User: Fold this.
Amino acid sequence: MIEGIRHIIFDLGGVLLNINYDLTEQAFINLGIQNFPELYSQARQTSFFDEWEKGKITRDDFAARIVDLAGIQISAGDITNAWNAMLLDFPLRRLQILQQLRLHYDLFLLSNTNAIHEEAFNKILMQNNGIRNIGVFFDKVYYSHNIGMRKPDAEIYELVLAQHDLQPAHTLFIDDSPKNIQGAAALGIQTIYLQKGMTIEQDVFKPKK
Assistant:
């Protein structure tokens, strides 16, 4: 851990929640959207998906736009299932780490997400771990679709810092996106970039020997 840290901001997908973008990509290809990889990925996405993650469009709008992109009729249920295919599980050890960290640090969750995914990952958490909402592990949860902002824009980090009077030098941000890490670091926030293959349980919060 970095010296002097008092507050920790976690990303969700790829940090706490295991995800696989390829599963959603393949699911939409199977539904007939052959160019889906060009429209959405972890590294880049069209403005439509940005609007979706900022809560600027409804679930019905989202489904209708997907149908437009496909050029064929696809049911809302199939769209939801394909969109959620990337969401896997919350490893128990990561949840235990959050419990332990809460004894010593202020914890916050900051995620670029959307209404469909929020419902789905909390359902996964309940089914697998018996916990109704990931928010129980945090002092405050910030989802992009609820606040109309998304990473890596400076305003979303500034919001979290200002609402809790956090000093950037004493705040750690953990994310698996280099763009999001750069956005936080530009404001003086301490960062850990969780590169592919890294996990918080093996590479950040390792048990003391």
